[in-house]
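Readers of this paper often ask what the protein records in our data store actually look like. Below, we set out a record of this kind in full and without editing:
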Amino acid sequence: MTIDATLAGHLQELRRGTVVVASLVVLRTPGYGYSLLETLSAAGFEVEANTLYPLLRRLESQGLLVSEWNTDEARPRKFYRTTPRGDDVAGALRTEWTRLDTAIGDLNPTTPGRQK
């Protein structure tokens, strides 16, 4: 399938929100930026570093993540973890995602198991 500019823009909008939820869920266990990139990529969330790091700073400024530097290794790394508030927000976003997925499925009368 060839992706035109319109579709590419809509896909980018759709993915932007999913990366927020995925990051909050993954960072329930502390991790640093590059490891988060690898984890998200392995799970099918394609995100670039120049998108992820500003997102992490924004989530931290919103009180959804906290960070601290680990200087125990040769190369210092900034570790992030989800705050209790971030965990609550992740749960609410996942619930809304499920509700929206069901609602969209209900709009398609040919989907097996859905209302007609």
About this structure: Helices lie at 5-26, 33-42, 49-61, 84-107. Residues 84-107 form the longest helix (24 residues). The chain has one domain: 5-107.
